[in-house]
Write a structure and sequence with these properties.
The complex is a heterodimer. Chain A is α/β, with parallel strands linked by helices. Chain A has 16 helices and 25 strands. Chain A is rod-shaped and about 200 Å long. Chain B has one domain: Glutaredoxin (3-Layer(aba) Sandwich), CATH 3.40.30.10. In chain B, 38% of the residues lie in helices and 19% in strands. Classes of the chains: A alpha/beta, B alpha+beta.
Chain lengths: 577, 126
């Protein structure tokens, strides 16, 4: 038929791309920037444009063996090299190896007079020379718009820039052009009109004194891309974009179980503990023992020879270790042998994104099977509730994706419903343990129950939660006619019941003894009667014998008499009969 | 005085820079001008012609014009921070001044070379 059909194979549909090597950016662009075309990176001052551009070049040179040219309009090459040295990028070394060329273009309006026609061939020649000298595949122009400040004839600059982008495409280099964000427009001078293949917008926002950097792909012609705003951060390893929301819900669910470290709790969770790679939330009011539960979990994992990451946002490592020792959990050997790593930092120390990225990084480096976050509630103070929720959702998603069991504690405040989490994160939690105070009879006791546990038959019972010097113990609570009792009241009630039971027991024993005595008495009586009977029987038998003997004797006597009288035979026979 | 009448590629371009530097120490009154072009285009030819005329009128006997073709010596563009073509650079006397364009406006060229007091400042103020 010769009909053209839509290619059903998605793998070879997209444009050729040049991987940036920037963590996360290649994920959301599904492979990188459009190869052989310019990309516009715009944003307000200080949002990380230059850094992103330079990382694109450095990673291109180091990871993909693609030499690059950096045309700097704002900073000299020395300044640039200095600025990125803290990220571990050595521009001078790359330049020595002919993998990078930095050309500082300085246009000073005060020393330039313009008269008549001109073009920007000088720029083209410089760029072309730099590209050709090292065979560059990547080019950065940072920030091209300063030309508008240095040259007064905007019409010429405009038409020359249009020509420049066409020329760059013709050269086949992958370009990154940075531009300042304008008022209501993406760039101050409308560069987005010329660079139409890919536009990335960077943003630096400060909300409640905490700053968050965000990245959005405004446009990417000819390819699918993530459209959301992705937080990104700049730390000592450069830029990392966090495309966590792009992970989706594709993680495989493990059927394997993991012990919580508290046998009775495992028993409550269908007998085997929680599923591996799920999220466990331990929530409760202050002092209900959330940290102890988390410590048990971590201790059990270390005991099994697994690695754990403990994120403590309220206590320092040594404080936590000391406190846990008091309930018989010694975490020190685990930190010593490297099975347990602590990460203690106040959430308010830096923004949520930074926290998330730090955790990402630590998890990637350390590769634990259990991550404890104690508590997550403090993260809510570090940003707005929605941000915190988004951050925790992404954290849980990330950990699930890596089959890591997450144990999180959450401090709830008295007065609010215990079933509510501030972060509204309950929906992402698989197993939710609720610790609550039970105030009764002038004392406060702890109760634990399983609010929910996805995918298993779990106990619906409240257990009394005891912190002993051998760790956490769970006891049955007393449920009886007096209601639910815990603590000393439970103990008293149990003692009372024990006393009652004992009395009853004694009564039964007494009655049994009585019965035994009676039986024995009866037996004795029966024995006596039988003896009497036997005596009477033998007496009667004796009498009967005597009587029979007498009768015999009588008959014998009569016969003798007959014989003597010679009596009528027949009469005698008759009498015999 | 040395005038290169043709902005054609010159192989000895970089060599001449050394000569210029030597000339500076010898004669501080000498005007050292350098015209950057990219090939023999209408604009560069016009710029060179305009420049020669102006120099003859105002600096007769004490100027030096050197034409640098960046198509031949692209590496020279970086040193004088050349972006636009054509660009006239006044290397001496100091400070460095640049005039870009085909120099068709003699007045502005003279202002750019500081052979005439700038009126642009007064215009800006008004």
């Amino acid at each position: 038929m010769g009909r053209v059909e839509i290619n059903p194979d998605t793998s070879n549909r997209t444009l050729p791309k040049a991987a940036t090597g920037i963590q996360g950016l290649d994920d959301i662009t599904s492979g990188g920037l459009p190869r052989g075309r310019p990309t516009l990176v715009c944003g307000s001052p200080g949002c990380g444009k230059t850094l992103m551009a330079i990382e694109f070049l450095v990673r291109g040179a180091v990871q993909y063996a693609e030499p690059g040219v950096f045309m700097a309009f704002e900073e000299t090459s020395e300044e640039l090299a200095q600025n990125v040295r803290s990220l571990g990028f050595d521009l001078e070394a790359l330049a020595r190896e002919n993998m990078l060329r930095v050309d500082y273009v300085h246009v000073e309006r005060s020393e330039i007079e313009e008269t008549g026609e001109y073009d920007l061939d000088g720029l083209f020649i410089r760029l072309g020379h730099a590209i050709d000298s090292i065979g560059a595949k990547r080019v950065v122009l940072d920030t091209l718009e300063t030309l508008f400040g240095g040259l007064s004839n905007a019409a010429i600059v405009r038409s020359e820039l249009r020509r420049l982008f066409r020329w760059l495409k013709g050269k086949g280099v992958t370009g990154v052009i940075t531009a300042e964000r304008g008022d209501g427009t993406l760039t101050r001078h409308g560069l987005e009109e010329y660079v139409s293949d890919c536009v990335i917008l960077l943003d630096h926002r400060v909300t409640e004194q905490l700053s968050t950097r965000r990245l959005r792909i405004v446009k990417y012609r000819g390819t699918t891309h993530g459209t959301n705003e992705y937080p990104f951060l700049i730390d000592d390893a450069g830029i990392s974009v966090l495309p966590v929301t792009s992970l989706g819900l594709q993680h495989t669910a493990s059927g394997e179980r993991t012990s919580t470290g508290i046998p009775r709790l495992d028993e409550m969770l269908g007998g085997e503990g929680v599923f591996k790679g799920t999220s466990v939330l331990v929530s409760g009011t202050a002092g209900t023992g959330k940290t102890s539960v988390a410590a048990h979990f971590v201790d059990a994992a270390c005991r099994r020879g697994e690695r754990c990451l403990y994120v403590a946002s309220e206590e320092s490592e040594s404080q936590l270790t000391r406190n846990m020792r008091s309930i018989g959990i010694d975490l020190e050997p685990w930190t010593a042998n490297g099975a347990l790593r602590f990460h203690a930092a106040r959430p308010t120390a830096y923004g949520l994104e930074m926290h998330l990225a730090t955790l990402h990084k630590m998890v990637n480096e350390f590769d634990p099977t259990v991550v404890a976050v104690d508590p997550i509630s403090t993260f809510l103070n570090a940003g707005t509730a929605r941000e915190a929720e988004a951050m925790l959702t992404r954290l849980v998603d990330f950990l699930k994706g890596r089959q890591i069991t997450a144990v999180m504690t959450n401090l709830t405040h008295g007065g609010t419903a215990a079933e509510r989490t501030e972060g509204g994160i309950s929906s992402i939690i698989d197993t939710w343990l609720l610790l609550r105070d039970i105030e009764l009879g002038g004392e406060r006791n702890r109760g634990l129950y399983v609010l929910k546990s996805r995918g298993m038959a779990h106990s619906n019972q409240i257990r009394e939660f005891l912190l002993t010097d051998r760790g956490v113990e769970l006891n049955d609570v007393y449920v009886g006619p007096e209601g639910v009792l815990t603590g000393s009241m439970r103990a008293a009630q149990e003692a009372r019941e024990k006393a009652v039971t004992l009395t009853r027991q004694q009564e039964i024993e007494r009655r049994q003894r009585e019965l035994e005595t009676k039986r024995q008495a009866l037996d004795a009586q029966i024995e006596a009667l039988r003896a009497k009977f036997e005596a009477e029987q033998s007496e009667l038998e004796l009498i009967i014998g005597q009587e029979e003997a007498a009768a015999q004797r009588l008959r014998d006597d009569r016969k003798d008499v007959e014989r003597i009288r010679k009596a009528d035979r027949s009469a005698a026979e008759r009498s015999d009969a | 005085m040395k005038v290169n009448p043709d902005p054609e590629p010159q192989e000895e371009g970089p060599l001449r820079l050394v000569e210029v530097a030597a000339a500076e120490t010898v004669d501080p009154a000498m005007w050292d001008l350098r015209l950057y072009v990219a090939g023999k285009t209408a604009k560069s030819v016009a710029a060179f012609e305009n420049l020669s005329r102006i120099c003859e009128e105002h600096l007769a006997g004490k100027y030096k014009i050197e034409v640098v073709d960046l198509l031949v010596h692209p590496q020279l563009a970086q040193g004088d921070q050349i972006v636009a073509i054509p660009t006239l650079v006044r290397k001496l006397p100091e400070p460095i001044r640049k005039v870009i364009g085909d120099l068709s406006n003699a007045e502005r060229t003279l202002v750019g070379l500081q052979l005439r007091p700038a009126r642009s400042g007064a215009e800006d103020a008004s």
